[in-house]
Amino acid sequence: MASKVSQFMQLGRKIVAVGRNYKAHAHELGNALPSKPMLFLKPTSSYIAEGEKIRIPEGCTSLHHEVELGIVIGKPGSRISEQDAASHIGGYILALDMTARDFQEEAKKKGHPWSLAKGFDTSCPVSGFIDKDKISDPSKVRLWLKVNDSLKQDGNTGDMIFSIPHLISYISRYFRLEEGDVILTGTPEGVGPVGSGDVIEAGLSDVVTMKFQVEQS
Ligand SMILES: CC(=O)CC(=O)C(=O)O
Ligand SMILES: [Mg+2]
Predict the structure, then answer these.
(1) I need a labelling partner for 73 at 20 to 30 A (CA). Which of 24, 94, 131, 139 fits?
(2) Number of domains comprising the chain
Protein backbone atom coordinates (compact mmCIF):
# COMPACT_ATOMS: atom_id res chain seq x y z
CA MET A 1 0.00 0.00 0.00
CA ALA A 2 2.69 2.52 1.01
CA SER A 3 4.56 2.36 -2.29
CA LYS A 4 1.38 3.11 -4.19
CA VAL A 5 0.11 5.92 -2.02
CA SER A 6 3.55 7.51 -2.09
CA GLN A 7 2.73 8.28 -5.72
CA PHE A 8 -0.22 10.42 -4.63
CA MET A 9 0.95 13.38 -6.67
CA GLN A 10 1.45 11.34 -9.85
CA LEU A 11 -1.85 9.55 -9.39
CA GLY A 12 -3.54 12.93 -9.61
CA ARG A 13 -6.26 11.99 -7.17
CA LYS A 14 -8.50 14.56 -5.56
CA ILE A 15 -7.65 16.93 -2.72
CA VAL A 16 -10.53 17.41 -0.26
CA ALA A 17 -9.85 20.30 2.11
CA VAL A 18 -11.57 21.01 5.41
CA GLY A 19 -12.10 24.62 6.48
CA ARG A 20 -12.53 26.15 9.94
CA ASN A 21 -11.52 22.99 11.79
CA TYR A 22 -9.70 24.86 14.57
CA LYS A 23 -11.69 27.16 16.86
CA ALA A 24 -8.95 29.80 17.24
CA HIS A 25 -8.48 30.04 13.47
CA ALA A 26 -12.22 30.40 12.82
CA HIS A 27 -12.24 33.20 15.41
CA GLU A 28 -9.18 35.02 14.04
CA LEU A 29 -10.94 35.46 10.68
CA GLY A 30 -14.29 36.28 12.31
CA ASN A 31 -15.94 33.09 11.03
CA ALA A 32 -18.68 31.19 12.87
CA LEU A 33 -17.81 27.72 14.17
CA PRO A 34 -19.10 25.01 11.82
CA SER A 35 -21.68 22.51 13.07
CA LYS A 36 -20.43 19.98 10.50
CA PRO A 37 -17.18 19.79 8.49
CA MET A 38 -16.91 22.52 5.86
CA LEU A 39 -15.42 21.08 2.65
CA PHE A 40 -13.91 22.41 -0.54
CA LEU A 41 -11.77 20.88 -3.31
CA LYS A 42 -8.36 21.88 -4.61
CA PRO A 43 -7.27 20.65 -8.08
CA THR A 44 -4.25 18.35 -8.27
CA SER A 45 -2.64 20.92 -10.60
CA SER A 46 -2.12 22.99 -7.42
CA TYR A 47 0.47 20.53 -6.00
CA ILE A 48 4.12 21.56 -5.84
CA ALA A 49 7.05 19.78 -4.20
CA GLU A 50 10.12 21.28 -2.50
CA GLY A 51 12.37 23.00 -5.02
CA GLU A 52 9.42 24.62 -6.78
CA LYS A 53 8.21 28.12 -5.89
CA ILE A 54 4.86 29.35 -4.63
CA ARG A 55 3.64 31.91 -7.16
CA ILE A 56 1.39 34.77 -6.06
CA PRO A 57 -1.55 34.57 -8.47
CA GLU A 58 -2.19 37.47 -10.82
CA GLY A 59 -4.16 40.26 -9.13
CA CYS A 60 -3.80 38.83 -5.60
CA THR A 61 -2.80 41.40 -2.96
CA SER A 62 -3.09 39.17 0.12
CA LEU A 63 -1.65 35.65 -0.20
CA HIS A 64 -1.93 33.78 3.13
CA HIS A 65 -0.12 30.71 4.45
CA GLU A 66 -2.09 27.90 6.16
CA VAL A 67 -0.10 24.93 7.46
CA GLU A 68 -2.07 21.66 7.59
CA LEU A 69 -1.76 17.94 8.25
CA GLY A 70 -2.67 15.98 5.11
CA ILE A 71 -4.06 12.45 5.22
CA VAL A 72 -3.18 10.26 2.23
CA ILE A 73 -5.85 7.64 1.60
CA GLY A 74 -4.46 4.12 1.22
CA LYS A 75 -7.61 2.07 0.70
CA PRO A 76 -10.74 3.11 -1.24
CA GLY A 77 -14.13 3.36 0.35
CA SER A 78 -17.56 4.98 0.56
CA ARG A 79 -19.60 5.41 3.74
CA ILE A 80 -16.62 4.51 5.90
CA SER A 81 -17.48 4.20 9.58
CA GLU A 82 -15.46 6.14 12.17
CA GLN A 83 -14.35 2.77 13.56
CA ASP A 84 -12.92 1.73 10.18
CA ALA A 85 -11.45 5.12 9.28
CA ALA A 86 -7.90 4.41 10.49
CA SER A 87 -7.61 1.40 8.16
CA HIS A 88 -8.16 3.73 5.16
CA ILE A 89 -5.19 5.93 6.07
CA GLY A 90 -2.15 5.07 3.93
CA GLY A 91 0.12 7.79 5.26
CA TYR A 92 0.47 11.52 5.77
CA ILE A 93 1.91 14.67 4.25
CA LEU A 94 2.60 18.13 5.57
CA ALA A 95 0.85 20.65 3.32
CA LEU A 96 0.23 24.35 2.86
CA ASP A 97 -3.26 25.43 1.87
CA MET A 98 -2.10 28.67 0.25
CA THR A 99 -5.03 31.04 0.07
CA ALA A 100 -5.60 34.25 -1.90
CA ARG A 101 -7.40 35.86 1.02
CA ASP A 102 -8.57 38.89 -0.96
CA PHE A 103 -10.11 36.63 -3.61
CA GLN A 104 -11.71 34.56 -0.85
CA GLU A 105 -13.21 37.60 0.91
CA GLU A 106 -14.68 38.82 -2.36
CA ALA A 107 -16.09 35.36 -3.11
CA LYS A 108 -17.58 35.12 0.40
CA LYS A 109 -19.36 38.46 0.02
CA LYS A 110 -20.83 37.45 -3.34
CA GLY A 111 -21.67 33.89 -2.32
CA HIS A 112 -19.28 32.60 -5.00
CA PRO A 113 -17.16 29.43 -4.77
CA TRP A 114 -13.60 29.52 -3.42
CA SER A 115 -12.00 27.73 -6.40
CA LEU A 116 -9.83 30.65 -7.49
CA ALA A 117 -8.86 31.64 -3.92
CA LYS A 118 -7.79 28.11 -3.01
CA GLY A 119 -7.04 26.27 -6.24
CA PHE A 120 -4.64 28.39 -8.28
CA ASP A 121 -1.38 26.82 -9.54
CA THR A 122 1.15 26.28 -6.71
CA SER A 123 -1.50 26.67 -3.96
CA CYS A 124 -0.76 23.22 -2.50
CA PRO A 125 2.93 22.84 -1.56
CA VAL A 126 3.54 19.44 0.04
CA SER A 127 6.25 17.48 1.82
CA GLY A 128 7.26 14.01 0.76
CA PHE A 129 5.06 11.08 1.75
CA ILE A 130 5.21 10.17 5.45
CA ASP A 131 4.73 6.49 6.28
CA LYS A 132 1.75 5.78 8.48
CA ASP A 133 3.91 4.19 11.18
CA LYS A 134 5.99 7.39 11.59
CA ILE A 135 3.01 9.06 13.29
CA SER A 136 1.66 6.93 16.11
CA ASP A 137 -1.17 9.29 17.00
CA PRO A 138 -2.23 11.81 14.30
CA SER A 139 -4.55 13.49 16.78
CA LYS A 140 -1.55 14.74 18.75
CA VAL A 141 1.00 16.25 16.42
CA ARG A 142 2.53 19.71 16.44
CA LEU A 143 2.23 21.80 13.27
CA TRP A 144 4.37 24.91 12.94
CA LEU A 145 5.21 27.47 10.27
CA LYS A 146 7.79 30.25 10.04
CA VAL A 147 8.05 33.09 7.54
CA ASN A 148 11.64 34.32 7.13
CA ASP A 149 12.57 32.55 10.42
CA SER A 150 9.76 34.22 12.38
CA LEU A 151 7.28 31.77 13.96
CA LYS A 152 3.72 32.49 12.72
CA GLN A 153 1.75 29.28 13.35
CA ASP A 154 2.29 26.82 16.18
CA GLY A 155 -0.65 24.50 16.68
CA ASN A 156 -1.53 20.95 17.53
CA THR A 157 -3.91 18.57 15.77
CA GLY A 158 -5.37 17.88 19.22
CA ASP A 159 -7.23 21.18 18.81
CA MET A 160 -9.23 20.09 15.76
CA ILE A 161 -12.99 20.57 16.08
CA PHE A 162 -13.73 17.41 14.04
CA SER A 163 -11.47 14.39 14.57
CA ILE A 164 -9.67 12.59 11.74
CA PRO A 165 -11.98 9.50 11.93
CA HIS A 166 -15.01 11.80 11.81
CA LEU A 167 -13.62 13.68 8.79
CA ILE A 168 -12.89 10.47 6.86
CA SER A 169 -16.33 9.09 7.68
CA TYR A 170 -18.16 12.34 6.86
CA ILE A 171 -16.29 13.02 3.60
CA SER A 172 -16.80 9.43 2.38
CA ARG A 173 -20.57 9.84 2.66
CA TYR A 174 -20.39 12.31 -0.23
CA PHE A 175 -17.11 11.63 -2.07
CA ARG A 176 -15.88 8.08 -2.65
CA LEU A 177 -12.34 8.10 -1.28
CA GLU A 178 -9.72 6.55 -3.54
CA GLU A 179 -6.14 5.49 -3.04
CA GLY A 180 -3.92 8.55 -3.35
CA ASP A 181 -6.63 11.06 -2.42
CA VAL A 182 -5.50 13.66 0.10
CA ILE A 183 -7.56 15.22 2.88
CA LEU A 184 -6.25 18.56 4.16
CA THR A 185 -7.48 18.74 7.74
CA GLY A 186 -7.62 22.52 8.32
CA THR A 187 -5.22 25.05 9.74
CA PRO A 188 -4.55 26.27 13.28
CA GLU A 189 -4.45 30.00 14.10
CA GLY A 190 -1.73 32.40 13.03
CA VAL A 191 -2.42 32.56 9.28
CA GLY A 192 -1.07 35.67 7.60
CA PRO A 193 0.32 37.26 4.45
CA VAL A 194 3.47 36.44 2.52
CA GLY A 195 5.15 38.42 -0.24
CA SER A 196 7.56 37.91 -3.08
CA GLY A 197 10.98 36.74 -1.83
CA ASP A 198 9.66 35.42 1.49
CA VAL A 199 10.72 31.94 2.60
CA ILE A 200 8.15 29.71 4.31
CA GLU A 201 9.41 26.87 6.48
CA ALA A 202 6.99 24.41 8.07
CA GLY A 203 7.21 21.28 10.17
CA LEU A 204 5.24 18.40 11.60
CA SER A 205 6.48 17.43 15.09
CA ASP A 206 9.94 15.93 14.64
CA VAL A 207 8.85 13.99 11.56
CA VAL A 208 9.30 16.36 8.63
CA THR A 209 10.21 19.93 7.69
CA MET A 210 9.91 21.66 4.33
CA LYS A 211 10.81 25.03 2.80
CA PHE A 212 9.27 27.02 -0.05
CA GLN A 213 10.08 30.41 -1.52
CA VAL A 214 7.36 32.79 -2.69
CA GLU A 215 7.55 34.75 -5.95
CA GLN A 216 5.31 37.03 -7.95
CA SER A 217 3.81 35.25 -10.96
C1 LIG B 1 -11.07 30.33 6.07
C2 LIG B 1 -10.35 29.27 5.36
O3 LIG B 1 -9.59 29.59 4.45
C4 LIG B 1 -10.63 27.88 5.71
C5 LIG B 1 -9.49 26.95 5.68
O6 LIG B 1 -8.94 26.63 4.65
C7 LIG B 1 -8.98 26.40 6.94
O8 LIG B 1 -7.98 25.69 6.91
O9 LIG B 1 -9.57 26.66 8.00
MG1 LIG C 1 -7.07 25.58 4.96
Answers:
(1) 24
(2) 1
